[in-house]
Design brief:
It is a single chain. The chain is mostly helical. It is 83% helix and 0% strand. It contains four helices and no strands. α1 packs antiparallel against α2 and α1 packs antiparallel against α3. The longest helix has 58 residues. The N and C termini lie far apart (102 Å).
């Protein structure tokens, strides 16, 4: 049996449930995932809505934690850069004051 034949049988099977059944709409909603799995030579394992929600929530929480870490690292680098810039400005300001004082003494 070919992949296309399997998908045709799957489509016929889904059709037998109809739109007003419990399984029909769900089977229709996972049809694309089933096709991708079959055409990729993978065993179809579509997520049930609860499992998909839990996976999505786990991904969301992981992304938030990663984003928080990135923001913290950015804030730390910003603070370090500002501290370095402030030290350099203070150093240049002190040097300029010394030059001006020396110039005033020479006048």
């Amino acid at each position: 049996m070919t992949k296309q034949q399997e998908l045709a049988i799957f489509d016929e099977f889904v059709f037998t449930f109809g739109a007003h059944s419990y399984l029909g709409p769900w089977l229709q909603s996972i049809r694309g995932e089933v096709e991708r799995s079959i055409t990729s030579d993978l065993y179809p394992m579509p997520d049930l809505p609860d499992a998909a929600y839990r996976k999505g929530e786990a991904l969301r929480l992981r992304a938030l934690a990663e984003a928080e870490t990135i923001v913290e690292q950015g804030n730390k680098k910003y603070a370090e850069a500002m501290a370095k810039a402030t030290r350099e400005i203070d150093s240049k300001r002190a040097l300029a004051k010394r030059w001006l004082a020396k110039a005033m003494d020479e006048v």
